[in-house]
Amino acid sequence: MTSRSRHPSASSRQSGVSLIIVLMILLVITVLGVGGAQLTLQAERGTRADRDVEIAHQAAEQALTDAELDITKFRTNFFKRDNDVGFVKGCSAAADSKGLCKPSDAGVLPVWATAFDDDSKTVAYGTFTNQLHDYFGHGIQSAREPRYIIESTQDSDSCAADGSADLQSATLQFTCKVLRVTAMGYGPNQDTKVVLQTEFRYE
Questions:
Q1: CA neighbor of 89 nearest in space, from 79, 97, 77
Q2: 3-class SS at 203?
Q3: Mean pLDDT for back-to-back runs of 10 residues, the chain (203 residues)
């Protein structure tokens, strides 16, 4: 009785090598597919973030426009050159002088850096001007209305041009007066915020 040992045939060895190659190709394709999907998701997130920031920026611009109307056509008595009534440290929460602020003291955070933490001391879009809130039409809307504050401050450059060394003197207290408007707009997610600032100078 003779024993015979079996050795893998050439075709079997080729089939095994082919299987390994196919598995490696599938692995590479899978890695490429996952990487491509991640890149697509990152691009989508970036595009969405850019869109949200743009919406917040537009909302802040609308709030600046609303504040300008407030100054020139609505609460005009508060914004006369010789008036300082209604403007308080930390911003006013009173119904008629809401959002009117005096600048922070030297060495303290500017008032606009903290004012928007308290809605009661900022003015929501349309509060005094009665403008409608659908400023984006039927498109994607802000998570909430933009808001603004108005500071009564002084333009040191203009005062310096007048040759004055004492900006707080009685005669110059209102000469260099400037209204600084700070607005905050929100994106579709209210965590997306844009702050814009402008100054209203007297003639």
A1: 97
A2: coil
A3: 55 71 87 82 81 93 96 94 90 97 93 95 96 72 94 72 48 70 95 95 71
Give the integer Cα–Cα distance in Å for 18 and 102: 79
Helix ranges restricted to H, 70-128: 111-115
Comparing CA positions, the residue from 203, 97, 77 lying closest to residue 150 is 97
3-state class of 91 per DSSP? Answer: coil
φ/ψ of 102, rounded to 5, equals -95, 150
Question: Distance (Å, rounded) from C-alpha 182 to C-alpha 148?
Answer: 6
pTM attached to this predicted model: 0.75
Please, are residues 100 and 67 in contact by the beta-carbon 8 Å criterion?
no
